[in-house]
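hi!! sorry for the late reply, been swamped w classes. u asked for the two structures so here they r. pasted raw, havent cleaned anything up. first the sequence of the first protein and right below it the tokens
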Amino acid sequence: MARLAAFFSDSRALARLAAPIVLSQVAFVLMGLIDTVMSGHAGAEEQAVVGLGVALWIPVFIGLMNVVQAVSPIVAHHHGAGDYRAIVTDTREAMWLAAWAGLVPLALLPFVPSLLRGAGIAPGLADKTTLFLYGIACGLPAALMFRALAFYSASVNQPKPMMVLAFLGLGINSFFNWVLIYGHFGFPALGGAGCGWATAIGMWSGLVGLVLWTAFARAYRPFRVWSGGWSWPTWPGQKRLLKLGLPMGGAGLAEVAAFAGIAVLVGRFGAVQIAAHQVALNFASLLFMLPMGISSALAIQVGHRLGAGDPYQARRIAWTGVALGLIAAAVVVGPVVLLRHEITAVYSNDPAVRALAASLLLWAALWQFFDATQVCAIGALRGYKVTLMPMMLMLAAFWLVGIPLGAWLGYDGGFLARPLEVHGFWIGLVVGLLLVSVGLVRALRAVSEAAVRERSAVMGQGAA
């Protein structure tokens, strides 16, 4: 009974912290959903523009965002230890890191047209996708600085602002989608490319809102980032964030690039397969937000306990979070399977896109358990400040096994003697997720037990 009571107590604490994080992530995915739906009603080619654009910008953004997210476990440890001055110092360093990171996509843009044409994408589709990406690139510095502030805010137990402002940004993005996709108020009708520019406007609006919130809300008074004068970045501070954040970014990039990059890999099969992949992946991403929110809360809660010097509670919370992720996965599988045709009908009015996307959702239902396990385990490991090992596991599972297997099945058909096209790639993703979930669970067990043994040894020496 004591263990059950502890499980429910830890679950409630995680849920209180995770709920606003989940909702803010849902708003982010809904932005992609709205982009996909609104562009889809402008035609399959315009939806393919968004699909290709997302396939290229989301991996870059997720990779850079994960680098910036290093501020979360660092601030969580400081908060657990009661070191408020260090919270301010490291959050300011994270803001500088986010600003530098936001400039990276601008350096990559000149290579986009050649990449798309080299993948066999039609010239007209490639040009529209490039225009979409130029809009996104203008908003990415704001998006990354918003994330740095949001991670700081959540790590001091203030996750509500990121949720509220995420939905505000969703409304702004939707309005400007309508303006720029279809050409209202005298603006040119940019089609799917307009979604990129609308997203950039929403990104800058969110950053302004979060700066004002953290500057004036009373809850931030003990560790207000904007008071007492600003500070320039330092190499020790940037190095501290990069040491933890670069492997986090590598892990995030390895996973997301595997999922989103399939849109480019199946580009030779035509706009319908690209659009169907984007529809199914967007909905699967929406489902993923629940365990991902739990993962973010786990990194913070485990960090709080370790900062306070309690690895026993940290271990208990870590496994509670993994269990909650599996419960969340179990809840969504049935509705996805039963309602897959109704779900895809929301995204597109193209019968071919809807039918193919509905079949892909069966694979998405299958991988929910593996996906929930791996993301919750990686969140707990981040609380322990362990990031290099997860990155290596992600790279091996997806890029040495999952993607090569998907290409073999998709292009050649493997032992089936006929190409499975996009289905082959999704089978590869399922195998990759299975492998990485097993590896991360084993890593979490080893790391959490090592922390407990180390603490026990220290206490034993103190008693002696």
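now the second protein. again sequence first, tokens right under
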Amino acid sequence: MTIFRTKPVEQSIQDAEGGEHRLRRTLSALDLTVFGIGVIIGTGIFVLTGVAARNTAGPAVALSFVIAGVVCGLAAMCYAEFASTVPVAGSAYTYAYATVGEFPAWIIGWDLMLELALGAAVVASGWSGYFTSLLKNFGVFLPEAIAGDDAVVNVPAALIVLLLTAVLVAGIKLSARFNAVMVAIKIAVVLLVIVAGLFFVKAANYRPFIPPSRAMEAEDGLAAPLIQVLFGVTPVAFGVFGIFTAAALVFFAYIGFDVVATAAEETRNPQRDLPIGIIASLAICTLLYVAVSLVVVGMQHYSTLSISAPLADAFRAVGQPWLATLISIGGLAGLTTVVMILMLGQSRVLFAMCRDDLLPRPFARVHPRFRTPYRITIVIGAATAVLTALLPLGVIAELVNIGTLFAFVIVAVAVVVLRRTRPDLPRSFRTPWVPVVPAVSALASLYLMLNLPVETWIRFFAWMAIGTVVYFLYGRRRSRVAAAERERILKA
């Protein structure tokens, strides 16, 4: 037996279609598109625009969003091919199991566990900040010990996680409806920002559109980007290269579209609907990001933009403070859907791993009425609530980014492998120009990973080392594929 044994695609599809671990197929292409928008549009559109424009790109930050959107688009096409070919819960974990083997699949599943759990906890913590700030506008002040950046126990963050856990347990259709309402609120707020902001745009604020370039101050020690340590490359602010530096920053506003693929097993027509949901949500969010960035740098000169709340402060600067409150409401709705869909994605990845016996199988039990993996969902909700309530998560938030990019690389490689090993499989969506598009996607993701600090890489490898130990102590011997191999050997 080998740690690179693969799980046949036909077996994965058979697991999804029958037995006690079958999920209910109720989602449409529209539901998936709204899920994608729900998880992509969060704090990125309300915060990163100001940071990137003021520090690295100037008014050309809109081009940075386009570049980041193209990089994500390359990865999205790889995900779309896999999601339509192997319409099974688990996303990158399932794709890796079918192509590069069990141990790589375990590693990517372990990686997704880190990405999605930590991401949900970090965003829930941000949700608490928005909620506390919004209450202050109405004269309600929560004690600092239970809410805010320095809370001993972040109660609002834990409560929103537990509430969303209940929604997820109660059924995928209810989750989709709740998500649709929240997405409608935040899209309305974003469109209001765009339309209202146009009345305050000044052409002078766009000049120069690409400010003259200058070197950025280099970081030292573990805080330095890995690319700086390895090659002596220091980031450049402004100019053409500054646009690409900002693209590496605003890329993280797009993180989450890959979570749509985890709902493959609950989609009515996955071969058609999954590619539509993944690509359409990414395209819509890219257009909104570009429009918002053009408006905000037109309202206020890029050098004076706020770092923490650029949109709200831009409207305050033009004498429209009431819009700042609406933006806070949009931010609150945006973060609510991000938390919910990240937990949804993690529950489906771990559900697939439990069903394969790489983790304890009883957690893969599906609720007889709601047809959701309720046990693993409750465990994830409880763990996320504890994380966000008790831990200061800002320092390790970049682990979410490296985990996502690592998954992008694996999926890009897996597309090429499956094309060569199983050319016979029906593919309703095919990534164009294989292997060029997957290769460019993998290289672009690796480049963005190199821009992350050394300390992030160290924490990432530490987490991977823990996962390796767990696999060899538990999953390697207990996996269903290993059991099937042993049975074949005995019969032979």
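hope this helps!! also noticed smth abt the second:
The mean pLDDT is 88.
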